[in-house]
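Propose amino acids for all 68 sites.
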């Protein structure tokens, strides 16, 4: 995959993420054991994206270490 294609894919994904953020502005309440966490979906969605990206990145990096 060349550089222009990667840039295009990233731009499309960012545009889709922006659309999702604009449409989801409601508040979400989480109940985890005894805690109650309330936050806007505008905060939750990018937080989940960043956590998912970091998790996938470190899993892939650790997997490559085992192979090489």
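Proposal:
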């Amino acid at each position: 995959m060349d550089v222009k294609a990667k840039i295009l894919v990233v731009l499309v994904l960012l545009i889709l993420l922006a659309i999702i953020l604009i449409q989801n502005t409601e508040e979400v309440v989480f109940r985890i054991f005894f805690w109650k966490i309330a936050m806007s979906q505008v905060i939750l969605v990018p937080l989940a994206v960043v956590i998912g990206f970091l998790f996938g990145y470190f899993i892939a990096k650790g997997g490559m270490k085992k192979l090489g």
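The helical segments are 3-23, 41-67. The first strand starts at residue 27 and ends at 32.
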